[in-house]
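Working notes for the structural subgroup meeting. M.R. asked for a predicted model of this chain before we commit to crystallization trials. I am recording the input and output together here so anyone reviewing the notebook later can reproduce the run.

Input as submitted:
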Amino acid sequence: MGSGQWSVENRAPLKNEALVSEYEPETGCLSIIVLGASGDLAKKKTFPALFHLYRQGFIQSHDVHIFGYARTKISDNDLRDRIRGYLTPCKGFESTHEEDVGQFLQLIKYVAGAYDTEEGFRSLDKAISEYELSKNSTEGSSRRLFYLALPPSVYPPVCKMIKSYCMNKSDLGGWTRIVVEKPFGKDLESAEELSAQIGELFEEPQIYRIDHYLGKELVQNLMVLRFANRFFLPLWNRDNISNIQIVFREDFGTEGRGGYFDQYGIIRDIIQNHLLQVLCLVAMEKPVSLKPEHVRDEKVKVLQSVLPIEDNEVVLGQYEGYRDDPTVPDNSNTPTFATMVLRIHNERWEGVPFIMKAGKALNSRKAEIRVQFKDVPGDIYKCQKQGRNEFVIRLQPSEAMYMKLTVKQPGLEMHTVQSELDLSYRQRYQETIIPEAYERLILDTIRGDQQHFVRRDELKAAWEIFTPLLHKIDRGEVKSVPYKPGSRGPEGADKLAEKAGFVQTHGYIWIPPTL
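Returned structure, recorded in token form:
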């Protein structure tokens, strides 16, 4: 250093010095049953997540077996061959990938049967029981996890069949749990009906309503950021924050899923669940502890504090060409884009607009949270026009957190410029395996941790917010305006954000750092 040159030193490997998990490993063999095993969700998400958990040692071959169940009449090897191409290498284990895949696939057995008949589920229970007996498992001490990679319309009959024919026979420390995917209904009434039908068969601690956004690394970091860092505590309120944007953008359209998407639209598909869950974590108060019920209690309080959505604070859009899909009705009013303002009526957030934005066929692909702070009072540097301070959490792609702030531009003159403090995950955590959302959430179901799953009263409160607006859209009372694919969406969306108080920064673009 005597030469006046800077040196770069590698940081020490990260250590889990503050592990807060209280999970104690369970005994008893584990059966994971994937219903809808021949479908796209199972092939592209569920089985790859199970493979990565297996490869990282979170599920062991000596105490787990995986069963696929669907109507398609295929053999064990047929299912394995269908899955094989979706099992990508785990970081750090590339050299043994083929061997790992072969070992994992041998854990999978397939059972064919209908979703609403006794015969198929008796065959499934027989296959599971034979595996449990082969492991010398005491009756009732085993663990059964049913993952419903199915449309919600078949949840009630499938749950009824599981309850009737596939449960543990007695309670000797084992359990039966079910995982259900969104959408959980289309409005408040249908969601409550679905919840009631499943609730008649299973207790709430047995039901895991999965929203994969709650498994994303940066979403899971939100509570840590807010409640484990002192400098955020005094800033995170209406005194300092002007507005908060929660944004989901895709640069492609419905891609052949037009008929399915048209039944739901962008609000039901993205905003009512994914983005609203993010809002809860951004806005909630500190829970009493990290116990799942304490965390979910605080999320429900946020949802119950959201005011009814005003019609003049909603902009809907539908990209040109959406109706060209033959499966989409010619007169469809289904929005492929929506921007709306949610307002939370409580002491912390009164007057702070939460701008929710989601759309397809836009000019970029990203999901992020953008917390924009108020202007600095007494602007002696005359730099307000350059933009406000912002704290941005990039959920995908290129996971990162960065603080946008004003600094002096290097040089002899006193000029200010916008820059950032940047934590880019790809650069900072090069050697760390960042799990996919489904990996984390499936592991949580095995461990019995419901913190990152949606509780029944939480689901009800979410639908209460959006159902009045959705019914107006369904009746054609609120129209979707056309916008060009590859654009920012309808012009009215930016105007609505500006009216709500968001100040656009011009001339500054965050560029993810390269390795």
